[in-house]
Every structure is written in structure tokens, then in C-alpha cells.
Amino acid sequence: MLTAEILREVVLATEPDTRTRQRFCMVTKALATFAGIEFDAQSYRGKYSPKHVTPRDLPDDRPIAEWYYKISNPAWQWIYGAIATYGLRPHEAFYLDLADFPIVTVTEGKTGRRRVWPCYPEWAEQFNLRDRKLPAVTGRNNSELGERAAKYFKRVGLPFVLYDLRHCWAVRTLEFGLDISLASQQMGHAVQVHTDLYHAWISERHHQRAYEAIMMRSDRPKAPIIIP
User: Among residues 16, 23, 8, 9, which one has the least CA distance to residue 141?
Assistant: First the structure.
């Protein structure tokens, strides 16, 4: 018999302050309403939000690359490399058209079809992403595919979550100076969403890199030369 205590145990079995916890709260709330059970799922929802992630929480690019070589399963290794290189949502790595490699096309997913350029392009080659290998997993929907991926990488000891690879891709485009309207299109969300999530992450280091890149351009404006 379904009870409030069973629903509570189901929710508390998930990791606090995560997207998974929020989804379980949403589902158990619906179940409780359907079954006529009094259950306050909202109190267990937690504080997860992409806006709460800070650059301090994200891995550097070197450990991201190093972890690729620690993944023993070739198919999951490919999934990891694709997410890191293209800033994909985890389920989108299962739906890629590689006809224009190293540019890829996301054919299905949360926000539909779009093209994505590699950042870094070197990773597309180093991670051998041309040779696609997909793990033998299925899901009734995109969320389930993403959850299967998250569970695998948690099981092998990845010290950060897959979505951090997507956040790192976004921050990397800021460092490289890619226009946010282009970056947001490639990530599959609105410019305002991109700005809200990532604009505040621009640190002094990012400004310095952008400044140095601009100053090295041969066609940059030059100060007038005054001969006294």
C-alpha cells in the first residue's frame, strides 16, 4: 500500500540538491495527489539550480581531458568525449549526426535540431570522436537516457557531474570570445538564458585573455601617432 512514508523514502534515496531530487519530488507529489495521500514533497526539493553553479565548482580543462583516458568502457568514453567537446546535454550525445565532422548536428533532444562546433577542436581528434561508439542503454525519454549516463559516471568515480562538462564548454566560449548569440544557439537555449547562467561567470582571467587576443589582432584600431 502506498503511503507518505514510502514516498518520503523514495525521495530521500536520491542525492540532495540535485536535478534528480527535484524530479523525484515532482513525481511523488503527483502520485500523492492521485492517491489522495497527504505528502509535502516540496520540503525535500532542495536548492538545485544551474544558476547556483559557480566557476569555482567546475573542473579545469586538464582534469577533464585526463578523465577521458581513465574511462575503460569505449562506448561510455565516447559519450564523455562528445559531451566535453561539444557542450551537449548528456542525452544529446546519443543523437549526433557526424556527416560534417568535426562539426556535429544534434538531431533530437530537448530543443530540437542544431549544429555545434567543437571547443576545443583538438579534443574532437584526440578523443577519436569520428569513430562513434554508443553504450547499449535505452530510455523511455531523454531524461532517462541522461540519468543512465549520470549513474554510470558516478559509479566509475567521476569527481564531477556530466553537466559540468556543458557548463565548462559555455565558459570556454566566453574565454575564446565567441559571441553569446552564437554560443547560445549551439547550446540550444535562448540568449537570455545563456546570459543569465554564464555572463556573471566572466572573471578577471577571462577579461585578460580576451584583451590579449584583441591586442594581438593585426587589424585592431591603432592610437594616433603625434609627433611633437
Answer: 23
Residue 71, SS3 per DSSP: coil
Residue in 89, 91, 167, 194 annotated catalytic: 89
> Across residues 15-26, what is the average pLDDT?
73
The 10s digit of each residue's pLDDT in 135-148 is: 999 888 888 888 89
Q: Which of 23, 114, 132, 189 is catalytic?
A: 189
- For residue 106, the cross-strand partners are 96, 114
> Is 130 a catalytic site residue?
no
CA distance 121 to 85: 7
Q: Are 202 and 174 in contact (CB under 8 A)?
A: yes
Exposure string of 164-179, with b = 16+ CB inside 10 Å and e = fewer, is bbbbbbbbbbbbeebe
CA pair distance 215, 157, nearest whole angstrom: 42
Is 106 strand, coil or helix? strand
Catalytic residue among 19, 166, 167, 194: 166
Active-site residue, 70 included: no
Whether residue 166 lies in the annotated active site: yes
For residues 226 and 228, what is the distance between their CA atoms, to the nearest angstrom?
Answer: 6
- Alpha-carbon distance 52 to 22, whole Å? 15
Q: What is the pLDDT of residues 101-112, one digit of tens each?
A: 999 999 987 777
The per-residue pLDDT for 93 is 96
Query: 10 Å Cβ neighbour count for 89?
Result: 22
